[in-house]
Specification:
Length: 137
């Protein structure tokens, strides 16, 4: 069971884990041991609240297919356990990222004093530039 937040958890049947051989260098061990993990998570079949499902499907993430399946491949570590934990943590982070909603910005206006200061600086700067002209004799 994967705990996402206080209210949201994912059961083991919702997450499909397959162990495969890792790519890349690893010596003799890499050809014998299936230490990499393919995690598949179907958003539509899951027990996630509708809010999370909608937000996940709207995310522009390459790990989410058009059919709504999250595919995560973890092969950074040398052991199955660490790779499985890494894949589950990445799934958890993805779901939390989808559930995060930034605060709405309240539009503010500059104060009259700040507007006056800005205009005074502009006129002062313009005066300096005007004084740079040719000197008439």
């Amino acid at each position: 069971m994967l705990k996402i937040s206080h209210n949201v958890t994912l059961a083991d049947w919702e997450i499909d884990l397959q162990f495969i051989r890792a790519q890349g260098a690893g010596g003799q061990n890499v050809n014998k041991v299936a230490s990499a993990v393919h995690l598949r998570f179907d958003i539509h079949r899951s027990t996630l609240p509708a809010y999370y499902k909608e937000r996940l499907l709207k995310l522009n993430d390459q790990r989410i297919s058009k059919e709504g399946v999250v595919v995560i491949k973890a092969q950074q570590h040398r052991t199955q356990d660490k790779n499985r934990d890494d894949a589950l943590n990445r799934l958890k982070e993805l779901i939390l990222k989808a559930g995060y909603q930034p605060k709405r910005r309240k539009p503010t206006r500059p104060t009259r004093s700040s507007q006056n200061k800005r205009m005074d600086k502009k006129t002062q700067r313009g005066q300096i530039k005007r004084n740079r002209g040719k000197v008439q004799l």
